[in-house]
């Protein structure tokens, strides 16, 4: 894609020329954030990336503030969080901003992921961009899990105990890995100190990968709802002011939702047991992670049987760990599993229902992850299925989606693509003019 469609930065003053000749920072910022050509047909789903950048900055700023007052000690951690909320100036605001911000961060990232899945943003030449996104997702999950342990409530203690114990299933090195995570023979003070250090460090690693992610985006440019590359200047608009305005509006709307939870329901997204100080002598009736981990928690618990593998048998504990991490890692292979020549699902009539089935499967897995394993799925007085059996069914559907992708790509008859983005926009706006006959007015519709 050509990046020369729109005027480049030209320094005017002597000072600007002197500075640009030695460090072309302003020119780089102009080419990356002002004159960068963006497909003119992008919709509001593409604003999720800017929302994620905003949330990352918000989490780092509020996290640094909280770290000034938090005490990573098992006897003091819970009371230090209460101290922040009750006694520190504006602690009542900063702590909920950080806690609710984690949920808002994952809400935005799930919108970002499903948008990429629907419009095929992982297909060539954007494979590296997608893989970096999967790495960011894994880093986010690790950071969120570590942060969930820090308040040292009941769910923090027992969630850390359950999840870290699963690493012991790794053949050969499992127990060693767990002992390093714990810093001893059980989850305790060394564990909390390690988790606090890692929780503080990982966001800065995320920033580094985000820079690579944005860099990888600027090489091929943005995908778009029609999956057609920019060919001429008519297909594109400069990023500023058209899409900066659109992004600003989307962030503002997102902040309304963020503020509503922060000010009116700051504890709604957390588990009630985590507002009780950690107590080793009392085990919660039902241990669950935060909502954004629930689909993978359901997959983890779905493996309740041994898996024979030649001369070796994978027990249910290791099988669940493999399934859980496999459910995330398989996303990185999507560019090669999806062999369709068409990117956007809007032009794939056979694949579209499979995509929405996959979306529904993820939602139901999240719901199942919040349920006890020994419960039954009931509709009224009707017994449908045991929750564990339901988790196994929907876990199978989850992985079947990826197995079916190559088959669907081969047998599917896709709809014809527009010749250009400009033509697609004209058709959307109901114009009878042929593509290329006139310039479309500059707008972001």
Automatic annotation (TrEMBL):
The main subunits of complex b-c1 are: cytochrome b, cytochrome c1 and the Rieske protein. Binds 2 heme groups non-covalently. This is Cytochrome b. It is a multi-pass membrane protein. SUPFAM superfamilies: a domain/subunit of cytochrome bc1 complex (Ubiquinol-cytochrome c reductase), Transmembrane di-heme cytochromes. PANTHER family: CYTOCHROME B (PTHR19271). Residues 229-419 form the Cytochrome b/b6 C-terminal region profile domain. Component of the ubiquinol-cytochrome c reductase complex (complex III or cytochrome b-c1 complex), which is a respiratory chain that generates an electrochemical potential coupled to ATP synthesis. It comes from Hohaiivirga grylli. It comes from the Bacteria.
């Amino acid at each position: 894609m050509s990046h020369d469609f729109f005027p480049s930065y030209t320094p005017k003053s002597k000072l600007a020329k002197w500075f640009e000749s030695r460090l072309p920072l302003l020119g780089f910022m102009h080419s990356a954030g002002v004159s960068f050509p963006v497909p003119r047909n992008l919709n509001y789903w593409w604003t999720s990336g800017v929302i994620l950048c905003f949330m990352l900055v918000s989490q780092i700023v509020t996290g640094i503030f909280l770290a000034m007052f938090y005490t990573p000690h098992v006897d003091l951690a819970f009371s230090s969080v209460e101290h922040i909320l009750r006694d520190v100036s504006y602690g009542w605001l900063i702590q909920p901003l950080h806690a609710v911000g984690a949920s808002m961060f994952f809400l935005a990232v799930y919108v970002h992921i499903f948008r990429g899945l629907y419009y095929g943003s992982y297909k060539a030449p954007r494979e590296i961009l997608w893989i970096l996104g999967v790495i960011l997702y894994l880093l986010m999950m690790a950071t969120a899990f570590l942060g969930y342990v820090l308040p040292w409530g009941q769910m923090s203690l027992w969630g850390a105990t359950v999840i870290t114990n699963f690493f012991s299933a790794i053949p050969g090195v499992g127990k060693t890995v767990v002992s390093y995570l714990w810093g001893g023979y059980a989850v305790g003070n060394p564990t909390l100190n390690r988790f606090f250090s890692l929780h503080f460090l990982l966001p800065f690693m995320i920033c580094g990968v985000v820079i690579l992610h944005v860099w990888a985006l600027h090489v091929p440019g943005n995908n778009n709802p029609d999956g057609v590359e920019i060919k001429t200047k008519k297909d594109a608009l400069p990023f500023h002011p058209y899409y900066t305005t659109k992004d600003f509006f989307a962030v503002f709307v997102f902040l309304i939702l963020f503020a509503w939870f922060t000010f009116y329901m700051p504890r709604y997204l957390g588990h009630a047991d985590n507002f009780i100080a950690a107590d080793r002598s009392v085990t919660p009736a039902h241990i669950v992670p935060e909502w954004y981990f629930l689909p993978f928690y359901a997959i983890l618990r779905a493996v309740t049987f041994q898996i024979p593998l030649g001369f070796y048998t994978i027990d249910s504990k290791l099988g669940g760990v493999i399934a859980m991490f496999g459910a995330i890692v398989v996303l990185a292979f999507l560019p090669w599993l999806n062999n369709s020549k068409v990117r956007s699902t809007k032009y794939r009539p056979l694949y579209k229902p499979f995509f929405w089935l996959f979306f529904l499967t993820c939602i139901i897995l999240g719901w199942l992850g919040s349920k006890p394993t020994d419960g039954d799925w009931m509709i009224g007085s009707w017994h449908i299925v045991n929750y564990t059996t339901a988790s196994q069914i929907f876990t199978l559907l989850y992985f079947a989606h990826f197995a079916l992708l190559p088959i669907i790509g081969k047998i599917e008859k896709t709809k014809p693509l527009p010749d250009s983005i400009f033509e697609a926009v004209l058709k959307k706006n109901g114009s009878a003019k042929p593509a290329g006959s006139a310039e479309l007015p500059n707008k972001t519709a």
